[in-house]
Design a protein that fits this description.
There is one protein chain. With about 190 residues, the protein is mainly α. Helices cover about 75% and strands about 0% of the residues. It has a single domain, classed as Cytochrome c oxidase, subunit III, four-helix bundle (Four Helix Bundle (Hemerythrin (Met), subunit A), Up-down Bundle), CATH 1.20.120.80. The chain is elongated, with a radius of gyration of 19 Å. The mean pLDDT is about 95.
Length: about 190
């Protein structure tokens, strides 16, 4: 396919999708770098041998996977012109995203209160400092995805996704699935690379 052909609108769609993918690849590389630093740091003498994963992180894994399903259902409903169904699934995805953040906070509380480790200071551990850092960076991206989801919900409410003009929800869904996949990767990484 020649990417220079087509209408101006088609060229803009392709360009925006390509920019999103460039961003996703660069974010993926950033997290690959962070998890690589984690692996290299395991050789330190002060590294904890048995990393405990908070139960809240397990629940947040289930929540984020459910949110990917609701986002997929929302996108499909909007593309089919099913406004009410699309709205319900978009709001469900938003609520699951917020619930994910709540469980991340609960997970941090478990690390601090139950396991006894802070991010920095005398009660910190390099192992949990890495966990805090990597998870906080992921949370920042989830917040960005929630903001884009709010924009999509507003645009859907204003009936802007009609006549094939669905680029906004397509981009949001792609980014949402990326941050979901990223949490699955991070959870499995922390679970298996202790």
């Amino acid at each position: 396919m020649d990417y220079t052909e087509g209408t101006e609108e088609l060229k803009i769609r392709r360009a925006k999708k390509m920019m999103l993918w460039f961003g996703i690849v660069s974010l993926g590389m950033s997290f690959a770098g962070l998890t690589s630093a984690y692996v290299v740091s395991k050789e330190r003498a002060d590294w904890l041998e048995n990393l405990e994963i908070p139960n809240a992180f397990i629940y947040s894994l289930i929540i984020i996977m459910l949110s990917s399903v609701t986002m997929l259902l929302a996108k499909n409903a909007v593309l089919k012109g099913e406004r009410t169904k699309g709205f319900v699934f978009l709001v469900s995805t938003l609520l699951l995203g917020v619930l994910f953040l709540v469980f991340q906070y609960v997970g941090f509380s478990q690390i601090y209160n139950d396991f006894g480790y802070a991010f920095t200071g005398s009660t910190s551990s390099i192992t949990y400092s890495f966990v805090f850092l990597i998870v906080v960076v992921h949370i920042a991206h989830v917040i960005a995805a929630l903001v884009s989801l709010l924009v999509v919900i507003y645009n859907h409410f204003k009936q802007r996704y009609v006549n094939g003009k669905t680029l906004g929800i397509e981009l949001c869904a792609t980014f949402w699935h990326f941050v979901d996949f990223l949490w699955i990767y991070l959870f499995l990484f922390f679970y298996f690379v202790r």
